[in-house]
Design a protein that fits this description.
homodimer; Helix Hairpins
Chain lengths: 63, 63
C-alpha cells in the first residue's frame, strides 16, 4: 500500500477511522476492496487479503 | 467521537486509512462531515470542526 499515510499522524489516522466508523462506511470500503480482489480486478498478496477479511469480520461483529 | 476505534489496533487503523486514501474516499468522507456541520445537520465542537478543515486541506494539497 502507498506511503501517503505516513504524512498523517497517528492522531489524524485515528480521527479518520473514527469518522469512517461514525459514518458506517468502513464495511463498504473493505467489502468493495475484497470484491475487486476476488473478482480479479485487483491483485494483492494473500496476507493483505486475509487482513481485509479479518478486519471486515471484526468491524461487523465486534463494533 | 465514539470509542469503537479503540478496538482496532493502530496497525488496523493505519491499514484502514491506507485503504481510504487508495480508494480516494478520504476527501469525500471529510467534506460530507464538514457540510453536515456547516448546514447545521450535525453539531460539533469548534476544535473538531477545525481539525476536519485542516485534515481536508492537508489531504487535498499534501498527498
Amino acid at each position: 500500500m502507498n506511503s501517503a499515510v505516513e504524512i498523517l499522524s497517528s492522531d489524524d489516522q485515528k480521527f479518520l477511522v473514527e469518522l469512517l466508523l461514525k459514518q458506517q462506511y468502513a464495511l463498504e470500503l473493505i467489502s468493495s476492496e475484497i470484491y475487486e480482489i476476488e473478482s480479479g480486478t485487483k491483485q494483492t498478496d494473500n496476507a493483505t487479503y486475509q487482513k481485509l477479511v479479518s478486519l471486515y469480520d471484526r468491524i461487523r461483529f465486534e463494533l
